[in-house]
Amino acid sequence: MRAASLVVRSVRNLTDAELVLPARGIALLGPNGHGKTNLLEALAYPVLFRSLRGARDREVARFGGPGFHVGLVREDGLAIAVTWDAAGGRKRVTIDGADCPRITDALGHWLAVAFLPTDLALVQGGAAERRRWLDRMLSLAHPAYLGALLRYRAAVAQRNAALRRHDGPSAAAFDGVLAASGAAVLRHRLDWVATAGGAWREALDGLGEPLPVELRYRGASELVEPAAWEAALAAQRERDLARGQTHVGPHRDDLALGLGGHSLRRYGSTGQHRTAAIGLRLLEHATLQAARETTPALLVDDVFAELDAARQDRLARRLGAMDAQLVVTAPREADLPDALEVARWHVRDGTIRQG
Questions:
Q1: Given a cut of 80, is residue 172 above it in pLDDT?
Q2: Residue 178 sits in the same domain as residue 241
């Protein structure tokens, strides 16, 4: 899956532009603050139709502007466009010119995996960081997972609202849908973990990590059976009512990352954390590629500068071997490894210059 062209209007500090993208990709060079990451933001926006960095839509738009527009045409001609109107806060998404009433209907038409300096949070952060990453990836990989996840989240929210009112009978009314959708979410996660551990180990070994690593699911795996939920919910009912929240289910689970038999989060170095986070992104790419039978684009935001020369070279060679469209940013040519063979573009004051 490659982008043939990209249209950006009123996106952060970027000058309005219509860009024709090389099939192999580009390296975008320029000083910090001049718009490199904003281009990645535009390329990533049509994946989930929200900010790559978790910003609100008004923060994606140029300051004081009427909103923003991003249009992407894939190499096969399919056109994806999104327009956000600042005045009404409305977002319009179209596929080949046809409106998508629900954003979820547009998911999967454009796939890209972003490698960001903030990815350290995937390793160093709390369980919520890894759950968000897992939910995002599996939702894009499997539409059935997204459906189960949305039903599960809605049931948890409604059940929690009843618990906060100390209304036990109303809370219990959501136990059935909670069990059915929660079990489906958990089954997808456990199936993924069963195959992902080996791929993650291979990725880190290829990046030069000498110690063995381990990826495990941390949660009540017995809840993969809907019938197991009744007893689990009953055991926590008094606690749920006292605290106004549901204490059972995959919304409280985690991915445990191990290094040399110990917790990677606690005992790994910053360099090992960064390598592990890059490995998770490589695993995300492999997951989407296998599930959707297409190769997502790769968006790499100034990640090479954080690695030593040997790991820079290994990562560049790994990315080059993946046959994906690659868009990578760096302040200077010298910050890019020699093995990275893509066209060089430049950006200054929001204006992108080819060559």
A1: yes
A2: yes
Label residue 136 exposed, middle or buried (CB < 10 Å: 0-12, 13-18, 19+): middle
Q: Which residues pair with 68 in a beta bridge?
A: 84
- 11 and 323 Cβ atoms separated by less than 8 Å: no
Give, in order, the Cα–Cα distances in Å from 26 to each of 8, 268, 329, 345: 17, 33, 8, 7
pLDDT tens for residues 201-224?
Answer: 999 999 999 999 999 999 999 999
Q: Which amino acid is at 295?
A: T
Using one digit for the tens of pLDDT, what is the confidence trace for 308-324? 888 899 999 999 899 99
Domain that holds residue 266: 116-293
CATH code (residue 217): 1.20.1050.90
pLDDT digits (tens, 9 = 90+) for 255-284: 999 999 999 999 999 989 999 999 999 999
